[in-house]
Design goal:
There is one protein chain. With 280 residues, the chain is an alpha/beta fold. It has 2 domains: 3-28 and 63-150, Rossmann fold (3-Layer(aba) Sandwich); 155-279, Hypothetical Protein Tm841, Chain: A,domain 3, CATH 3.30.1180.10. Helix content is 43%, strand content 25%.
Length: 280
Amino acid sequence: MKIAIVTDSTAYIPKDVRDKLNIHMIPLSVVIGGETYEEEIDLNAEQFYEELKRKDRFPTSSQPPSGKFVALFESLAKDYDAIISIHLSSGISGTYQGAITAGTMVEGVKVYAYDSEISCMAQGFYAIEAAKMAAEGKSPEEIIARLDEMKASLRAYFMVDDLSNLQRGGRLTSAQAIIGSLLKVKPLLHFVDKVIVPFEKIRTRKKAMNRIAELIGEDASKGIPLQASIIHANREEDAKEWKAELEQLYPNVDFSISYFGPVIATHLGEGAMGLTWTIK
């Protein structure tokens, strides 16, 4: 059985990795100053942050139209028997539901939509693992079971410089945003039940990053090999420095660097930093 792996652009898997593993990508869009851009196609992360400096309007994001999903699935149906379509959390976007709906509209191929319940490279971990398993000839059921297994061990924590973007975009309640801004805290955030909620309230950026380092240390100390990714919003040098620090602390963890691209950065804002990890 030939299985195609699809994910959306918010996994932020580099194009060379997608090409190597034969991962198909469907883009979400951002609207800046009345102009609509498909992220990772019309607009990359670097261009997005430059655009933000030139525009005085708050950017918004949108999920792929159903027609995009249908067209991609119909194209894949010519060469594949099944499609596993892995998407950002259904608690913050309708993209996953869009994949389900499109799957019922396409003939000749079975579509397995998978809710990562998260986003960014944490979501990317699922797509990469699924692609490797598909190349090994595993069945859709085996791949889905492995993704569920990964979900049990996957962790992700992130912090933002300013809570107003999350609040304005409807991804964090007004009360939580007001509390954070009044106290000048750098709350650690994570996903619970598919939505973004505070994990702990911490006073400074450095203390927040140190706390995340402690959290991965709790898992790394168990001696289980981990893969981890530092995720940054236009703070590449900070990410590189943090990676060097973490590699010294936890040599048994395989660290990489990823980024918050346009759609997710629309809600987190520039300067956000996060870390995700799972068992290899």
